[in-house]
Amino acid sequence: MVEKIDKTLILNRIKSHYKFKSDVQLAKFFGIAGTTLSNWYVRDTMNYDLVFTKCGELNPNWIVFGEGKPTKGYPNLEDTPFSITEEVLEKIKSAKDMEIARLQELLASHEATIAAQAIAMEAMKKLLDLQGKG
Does the domain made of 7-107 have the CATH classification 1.10.260.40? Predict the structure, then answer.
């Protein structure tokens, strides 16, 4: 099973690498509103395309998993074996797939709760109708 990728750690790595003192500076770096960045933290989500575009000189393995060096000794992406990039993307895809599955389970649970509540409301309505006739 693939471990869940902690987006807060990713954002904190980037903030630390660029020596940003605040989330406002990080949001400006990405070209997004502070509220968008705040939502990334709260919802544990992020725009990977934007992150990898803005941090193109950084090692993707370091950004996502904290593995390897951030930049020193890291070759340009053109010189990087494609399999490393594919491996990182596959890990991200697996994490996204796991998150989608988790959300689908959560949705199914909520739908079951709503269905049960609808049945309970119908039963309560019938009881009220019977009491009104009695």
Answer: yes
